[in-house]
Amino acid sequence: MLTGRRFRVEFTGEQAEYAERIGAACRAVWNTGLEQRREYRRRGAWMNYQPQARELAEAKTEHAWLKDVPGHCLQQTLMDLDRACREHGTWRVRWRSGRRWSPSFRFPEGSKMVVDKLNGRHARIKLPKLGWVKFRASRDLAGEVIRSVTLTRDGRHWYLSVLVDDGRRTPETHQVAGEAVGVDRGVAVAVATSRGELIDRPFSTEGERRRVTVLQRRLSRCAQRSRNRDKARAQLAAIGTRERRRRADFCAQTAHQLATANAVVVIEDLKTKHMTKSAKGTLEQPGRNVAAKSGLNRAILGKGWHQFALALSSAARYTGTVVVSVPAAYTSQRCSACGHVDPKSRESQAVFRCTACPRPAEHADVNAAKNILAAGLAVIACEDQPRPAGRTRSPKQEPAGTREELLLPPTTAAPAA
């Protein structure tokens, strides 16, 4: 199956300068192509990839700076622009700013690229016009078919993203058949499971948070387009990069653990993009509780809800785990024991005490995870036997049996009444 490998590049001075020129050319092609598409839309016409690719070939004969960079990178930029306009609309695609956009370009012909192992820590790959590019070989690419290579600058360093086909296939059955777990994502605790596990990790230290506050104040006092402002922005970006990598590492490790130990993982179908929209409103209709909503948005984005869902889907491909998404309505207000729904049952962010049954108090996120698991098992009960992620299932009659019986493996499940 297709997967990605990311390595840190160690450019020479000339290679770093040339990579910057390639990124600038790709940015210019993107902005020019987007402006052309918008101009056509103003006149009620359409522009797509084919005519723009022909015009790019003509422009390369007139402009030496376009001819100096690899042509495939420019063509891939136009392909990415065409896909973005088709998926989001011409007017919603953003410009690529020279100050805010990180240079990035892709080499599509992976079959022509050669990887040479230098030693235990370093390797090199031969790229068009860049020559041999040295990178830190944190893992071996031997036996994997390279499809494409993307170079991206993140802060002060360049990174090599290799799309490979590792030759593996999704297993037909999970190694731990019959195991299922419900997962609730929260703002106080990142992940809570129906088994009572609370999985969390701080992604930034107290010192880093104080440093961010100092740098934000310094940034607000700096003059626009000044060197001091660029320095402050770079320091803020470095702290944000460390936090982002810790969050990605946490999501990947947690998703791997859940997918390895469970044949079925049930999560809520959360629209994170819509949930984290700003509440400022407009001049005619200003928003309410803007500060509280902003804090909630930061907490949701800080826990990486969407990133965890993507990591779980990726890990499920290798284990054969079925990932089921269920509606999130009332999962935090319903008692997992008696099914009574009451907002007052959730006494606080962490305590759930049912107002209808004498059940002892429980962690609110764990109670929600149990409700999520029950909803996921109900979905599976109306379908065929669980299959690996990405495979279709047909609806069938829901079998009789309790939730505990449905959790058992098929060989030990109790007979239907």
Automatic annotation (TrEMBL):
Domain Cas12f1-like TNB as annotated: residue spans = 305-372
| Disordered: region residues | 384-417
Q: Name one GO molecular function term.
A: metal ion binding
Cross-referenced InterPro entries, in alphabetical order? Cas12f1-like_TNB, Transposase, Transposase_put_HTH
Q: Name one Pfam family in it.
A: OrfB_IS605
Q: Does the keyword NAD apply?
A: no
Q: Which domain of life is it from?
A: Bacteria
UniProt lists compositionally biased (Low complexity) regions at 407-417
Report keywords, A-Z: DNA recombination, DNA-binding, Metal-binding, Transposition, Zinc
Which parts form a coiled-coil structure per UniProt? none
**Ranges where the Transposase putative helix-turn-helix domain occurs:** 1-43
Every copy of the Probable transposase IS891/IS1136/IS1341 domain together lies at 172-278
One Gene Ontology BP term is: DNA recombination
Q: Which family does it belong to?
A: In the C-terminal section; belongs to the transposase 35 family.
UniProt-recorded name of the protein: Transposase
Organism in which the protein naturally occurs: Mycolicibacterium vanbaalenii (strain DSM 7251 / JCM 13017 / BCRC 16820 / KCTC 9966 / NRRL B-24157 / PYR-1)
Q: What is the lineage of its organism?
A: Bacteria, Bacillati, Actinomycetota, Actinomycetes, Mycobacteriales
